[in-house]
Amino acid sequence: MPVITTSSPQTPAMTNMFAKTASSIIASPHWTRGFAKVATRSPLNTRDGLKNAERVVIKVGTAVVSNSNGTLALSRMGALVEQIKELQTQGREVLLVSSGAVGLGRNLLGFSKEAVSDPRNVVDRQACAAAGQGILANNYNQLFQSLNMKGAQVLITQGDFTDPTKYKYLVETLDRLAALGTIPIINENDVVTAGSQLDVDAYSCFSDNDMLSALVASGAGATAVAMMTDVDGVFTKPPTEEGSERISVYTEEQGDVEIGEKSTMGRGGMASKIEAAQTAARGGVSAIVANGNDMINIERIFSGVDVGTLFPALDRPSMIQNWLAQAAEPAGRVTIKADALERLLRNKGAAKQLQMMDIVSVDGDFDASSPVEIECTEGKLFGKGLVQVDSADIEQSLGKKLLDSHVMCTSQMVLTDDAKA
After folding, report:
1. List of residues 6+ apart from 168 with CB closer than 8 A
2. pLDDT digit string (tens) for 20-73?
3. How many CB atoms lie under 10 A from the CB of residue 340?
4. 228-241 burial, b for 16+ CB within 10 Å, e for fewer?
5. 247: three-class secondary structure by DSSP
6. How far apart are CA 341 and CA 354, in angstroms?
């Protein structure tokens, strides 16, 4: 198994790392809505299609696995495990993303909700995560073992997504665990990452387990992710307000939705669930937001019953495009000419490649195979891609007419939603 780093001299190494690429740009969360082609709906984008989902992610929030007093909701956890067992019996592979560690640790260590919810109180939150994660994983494993099932704890940090080598190994590990019939019990490693909440300038690909479940689902090749929460789905306004209506199918054309308050112990809320579900859908994964207080809803979801809110999947991007759009931290930026941007958007002939003569300027010090931002001469950011040459070579070649000097190809690019032809 090759170990690829961003200092590798050629982009084929990076490409091989992700196993496959696509010949055109596919849609993704804040990236591209019509570069080479407009993203289309996946065959599994309907309720009936969920019946055929072979690999699924179940995400449960703090409000689902914990009682209001901070103790474990053992009856709901038991019902959850029984539902996962049933999905396995049907021949499906299941990955579990579970919140709750901080809340359980808070209860054990005697901290108040207010103290732990304060993002400035980093060390105490990390201590709670350390104490609670063991409780959470231990209880899951006991429940799994009672049904002759196997579980494996997987704690994830931002770097496991942003670093391409770690991302590759993470995806391969999750894939192997699922193939072995073992349930990965996935959570953010808050013991070492809680401090990142304070740094608003730090690059972040997820801020809560809603987005983590979306990234896991798209990266691990799942066909559906069920985000189980404490409400019946996405509503036109907070469900406790008069006139609110459940949205059965949420599309990109959906009108404004009034968002209520988020959970007191979790970091998510309905806004984060909508964003995460859209991220999953853009990654080729059907997402459902549903009520986890009644675990039978999991069976209903994958039986095609109209519960919760469905976010239909778009066509799945290549692994490398998915990583670029969702996780890659740009190492620099290149500015290209207006006519080069027009060719890219038309995607005709020579537009399959960005040439050295298309580059106006370069910012940053980066190696070949690094992810970089792409902007036009007007200063507008419109894309991200993998460069085939390093920044020094680009700078030395600016203004020169060089033949066969490819800088980037469209199969290793994504565009922003608002990029215009």
Report:
1. 4, 17, 18
2. 333 333 333 354 433 333 344 555 558 888 999 999 999 998 888 988 888 899
3. 20
4. bbebbbbbbeeeee
5. coil
6. 9
Give how far the C-alpha of residue 195 lies from the chain's centroid of Cα atoms, to the nearest Å.
20
Q: Which of 23, 55, 378 is nearest to 225 (CA)?
A: 55
**Amino acid identity, position 94:** V
- Cα-flanking dihedrals φ and ψ of residue 46, to 5°? -115, 170
Q: Return the higher-pLDDT residue of 121 and 146.
A: 146
* Tokens matching residue 28: 């993704």
Per the structure block, which two tokens stand in for 296?
Answer: 């039978």
Q: Token pair for residue 395?
A: 């700078």
Radius of gyration of the chain from Cα atoms? 22
For helices 270-282 and 209-219, give the axis angle rounded to 10 degrees: 10
- Per DSSP, the three-state class of 43 is coil
Q: Can you read off the two tokens belonging to residue 316?
A: 């799945």
Q: What does the DSSP assignment read for 342-354?
A: HHHHHT-GGGGEE
Residue 39 sits at the vertex; the CA angle it makes with 328 and 256, to the nearest 5 degrees, is 85
Strand arrangement of the beta sheet that strand 359-363 belongs to: 359-363, 333-336, 371-376, 381-386, 413-415
- What is the pLDDT at residue 44? 52
Do residues 383 and 340 touch, judged by C-beta distance below 8 A? no
Specify the pTM. Answer: 0.83
- As a whole number of angstroms, the distance between CA 61 and CA 50 comes to 22
pLDDT tens-digit map of 351-361:
468 888 889 99
Q: How far is CA 10 from CA 3, 13, 21, in A?
A: 14, 6, 15
